[in-house]
Specification:
Blueprint lengths: L3 E3 L1 H14 L2 E5 L9 E5 L9 E7 L2 E6 H7 L2 E9 L13 E9 L2 H10 L8
Parallel strand pairs: 1-6, 2-5
Antiparallel strand pairs: 2-3, 4-5, 6-7
Protein name: Acetaldehyde dehydrogenase
Organism: Skermanella stibiiresistens SB22
InterPro entries: DUF779
Length: 126
Amino acid sequence: MDRVTVTPEAVAVIGKLKALHGALAFHQSGGCCDGSAPMCFPAGEFKTGAQDIYLGRIEDCDFFIGAAQFEYWSHTQLIIDVVPGRGSGFSLEAPEGVRFLTRSRVFTDAEAAELEAAGPPPRGAD
């Protein structure tokens, strides 16, 4: 069961960004700038630590979320989408006239049990 997934529209934007910038990484923001928007950075530019939870990979890009945000969203699958418009943050897609957006769906009881059995996801410092 994936904790994070991506829409076909976002796949296209990620592909374009990878062609322009090389390897990428994402962090589900919970702070200033774009509020709770997923932020896209060149891989290695955003330093993760013990307070960052590794949710998985989307399009061969690591995806992290802050521990406090994870507590709010742990019962949902994050679905990374893209919409027209510019965000106000530092995410790489801003100059492209689009912004990433997180949608979510609640895990089913069976999915939640599967995730519980797998144990907690690793932290960025692991």
